[in-house]
């Protein structure tokens, strides 16, 4: 055990000893103190039950691995990670801090401030890319600007002049720093009421970095070959199931990328066209996860605001009855209901089903997309803010290359594509188990004799459709017409010098329903200063939270994200994209009131990374990275964000 002069390795969402550049740097530097700080108040939302369960198991697995290598994991409960890091430094005499990058806006600002504060205390701070194939600032168009569509972005990634580096091996042993004067906190991730449900998760899932390696090997040597044929099937295990492992960094996306590319070369040499097609599709889903970080870095408010300006004026339906029916799997559409019941029971959804239930939420029920995104955050094992924001924006048509907003997918027809035999529906809707396959996805059309034989009484033991598809189409057309009228009125007001006229109604926040029972933090606000002037760091760029990514009238609301670094977590981030509108029942007379990983678009998947070497000012950098290791200053366009996308019709919905 070594004394002073040791290094702190700050674990976050990189809970592995293999291919962990921060850990590798710490081991090279000498004695290591491994630290994990549980500070959920610093995030956008408090993690859900199943996500917390996974984190608990993953940390235990990591601690066991570290102990086998010669050290252990110090855990700390905190509301301020930087203060906790300073405490560790003071009690251990550490002189260096190593950590891996995160890309959500709050983490970017917090990590930047950590470098400011610890550097001022004489601590050398080095950070690394452990989550992406390429850093966001490395991938730009020919004019040096960020890409605005996935297809162009991914094409550039695949044609970069250098490949993502090979994954790093785990250290053979770790010299432990002296942390005897710093006691770990016992982290509590579940209460008594949650333990019973959580115990069921352990029957299906095995968190931890070595289990992630096993899952990757199983997929690459098995389902990957027929991924292109089977990826949309919801009634069988056809995907990788890697997304929770990837979210917590138990396996690096760089390793995933290299493993899959090895198979691609092998199958290409064998002339295996089906295998090559499967690899290309799977890598595209990897690319979508990469793109989610790219979007979060370049447009920090993508989890709150539509990225196409006119959709700020869409009159969402604010109906908690609809929302409750969707959550409980009581919409009357079997494929949607089966998906929502699976989500609640297991914390998991096949990605094709994620598309189905989210599309129904936005297009048929026309509920605010942020409600759905937040519910996914609360209930998914692989809850991932960046990936889920990208997925929900895509479905909502709020991305420049998202789905057409006036497109409604009928769950009946989709059901016979991804669940042709009805096995998935029968598994999660036992009340429909005896219904013949001919009617399994549209029981409302079944003859009364068939329903009676199957023991089904529509409107009693299984609901009638909450909204008829034809009525939803009419209502959506009217809502879109209303949206264009609002947008035109707002533009006219701006042109007439009345910026505070019509535009304000579009910025009225719609609070999350109380029924979601969001977990709140009531810690007192901290007195950390807000960072306004962002310095250049040679290892990681930090987007300015004061940059004008959106219209001028959005500036006031952008302050809330900046202040979220200072204040305790908000219950609901300010929503500036919703025009509140009561339920429009006038066009819904037909409504009957009752009340992973890894298809496309990929909500929660992962991608690799580059730059395992120390990339700080003190270290050398290869010429293929950046001249002298210097990262260009991040500078967003001064133009209206939504105006950048006019006429850009490249689609995400083709993978």
Automatic annotation (TrEMBL):
- Binding residue positions for FAD: 227, 239-243, 282, 382-384
Keyword NAD applies: no
Q: Which GO terms describe its cellular component?
A: cytoplasm; nucleus
Which cofactors does this protein require?
A: FAD; (6R)-5,10-methylene-5,6,7,8-tetrahydrofolate
Extract the InterPro entries matched here. Crypto/Photolyase_FAD-like_sf, Crypto/Photolyase_N_sf, Cryptochr/Photolyase_FAD-bd, Cryptochrome/DNA_photolyase_1, Cryptochrome_C, Cryptochrome_pln, DNA_photolyase_1_CS_C, DNA_photolyase_N
Pfam families given in the database record = Cryptochrome_C, DNA_photolyase, FAD_binding_7
Which GO molecular function annotations are given, in alphabetical order? blue light photoreceptor activity; deoxyribodipyrimidine photo-lyase activity; DNA binding; FAD binding
Q: Which SUPFAM superfamilies match?
A: Cryptochrome/photolyase FAD-binding domain, Cryptochrome/photolyase, N-terminal domain
Region annotation Disordered: where it falls in the sequence? 548-585, 599-655
* Sites marked Electron transfer via tryptophanyl radical: 316, 369, 392
Which domain of life does this protein belong to?
Eukaryota
Which UniProt keywords are present, listed alphabetically?
Chromophore, FAD, Flavoprotein
State the similarity comment: Belongs to the DNA photolyase class-1 family.
Q: State the protein's name.
A: Photolyase/cryptochrome alpha/beta domain-containing protein
